[in-house]
Design brief:
It is a single chain. The protein is mostly helical and 117 residues long. It has one domain. 82% of the residues lie in helices and 0% in strands. It has four helices and no strands. Helix 1 runs antiparallel to helix 2 and helix 2 packs antiparallel against helix 3. The relative contact order is 0.07.
Length: 117
């Protein structure tokens, strides 16, 4: 459908892309079409990345030579794919989940001991 717009790369095509991306993100969030929950989360992250790419293109149209805007847009574009890779690999379990559950487990045991005393 976006290829049928007369002004390719224009505002109408950008708005159409943002709308469709928003709707598909909602559909992935609501229906969770994949068997594994991690696949559903990855699909949602991909939709967020597409949405942010379209938002970044709006930012670049506003003032393409602004260094601060360029830094913000770079962080936006690179953070999400790195986060998605980290979540889908075993590193996330080793670096984040295990220490988190270790800390939370230790705190809950201390709270139970303190509460019973």
């Amino acid at each position: 459908m976006p290829a049928c717009f007369s002004d390719r790369g224009g505002d109408a095509q950008l708005m159409w892309g943002l709308m469709i991306c928003f709707l598909t993100f909602g559909a992935y969030s609501t229906f969770a079409p994949f068997i594994k929950d991690s696949d559903d989360k990855l699909a949602q992250l991909a939709q967020i990345q597409i949405f942010l790419n379209l938002v970044v293109s709006i930012g670049l149209r506003m003032n393409p030579d602004d260094a601060t805007l360029g830094a913000i847009l770079t962080v936006i574009l690179f953070f999400l794919p790195i986060f998605a890779i980290a979540v889908e690999t075993p590193c996330f379990d080793e670096l984040v989940r295990k220490p988190y559950y270790f800390i939370v487990g230790g705190c809950s045991k201390r709270n139970k001991v303190g509460a019973s005393a």
